[in-house]
Amino acid sequence: MKIIKIFIFSVFISLSPKLIAQELTYTPINPSFGGSPFNASWLMASAQAQDKLTGDFKMVSTFSARDALADFEESIKRQILNQFSRQIITNMFGETELAAGEYQLGDFFISISKTLDGINIQIIDNSTGSESNIVIPYL
């Protein structure tokens, strides 16, 4: 039985064509990465053909149009809200109790009330009118 397997294997090897391999080489297409400079116009035409955005939707550099004062105001608002959220968490899980009441922080109106489910925090953004309710259950 072993001799038959060796014979079939040797016949299979002798009838199979020789395997030929060659070295694979990579040639970049983009001229920015070492490709042919003649590919630049083809790549640009291909990119423009795939670009489906038009008019106001195109990417516009707004870095120079940013207002430093508005950025500073947004940063202050974020810091105040972060500090307020830290204080809520500390008071909720610490030894002191969170005081119910209403607070005005810039464009935000924050109302804290105690309900049967837990502490309800309602945040209203006066500039956009958006509203968010957070219920922190009692432990």
Topology:
Layout: H1 2-15, H2 40-50, H3 68-93, E1 101-105, E2 108-114, E3 118-125, E4 131-137
Antiparallel strand pairs: 1-2, 2-3, 3-4
What does this protein structure show overall?
A 4-stranded antiparallel beta sheet has the order 1-2-3-4, with helices on one face. The N and C termini lie far apart (77 Å). It has a domain at 68-137. The chain has helices spanning 2-15, 40-50, 68-93, and strands at 101-105, 108-114, 118-125, 131-137. A hairpin with a 5-residue loop joins strand 3 (118-125) and strand 4 (131-137). By secondary structure, the protein is α+β, with helices and mostly antiparallel strands. It is built from 3 helices and 4 strands. The chain is elongated and about 90 Å long.
Record keyword descriptors for this entry.
four-stranded antiparallel sheet; 3 helices; 4 strands; 139 residues; 37% helix; alpha+beta
- Spans of at least 5 consecutive residues with low confidence: none
Number of strands: 4
Q: How many helices in DSSP terms?
A: 3
- The H-and-E topology, N to C, reads as HHHEEEE
Oligomer: single chain
What is the mean pLDDT?
Answer: 78
Helical content band: 25-40%
* Amino-to-carboxy terminus distance: 77 Å
How are the strands ordered across the major sheet? Answer: 1-2-3-4
Taking Cα atoms only, what radius of gyration do you get, to the nearest Å?
34 Å
How can the largest sheet be summarized? 4 strands, antiparallel
Determine the strand fraction and express it as a percent band: 15-25%
Question: What is the general shape?
Answer: elongated
* SS-based class: alpha+beta
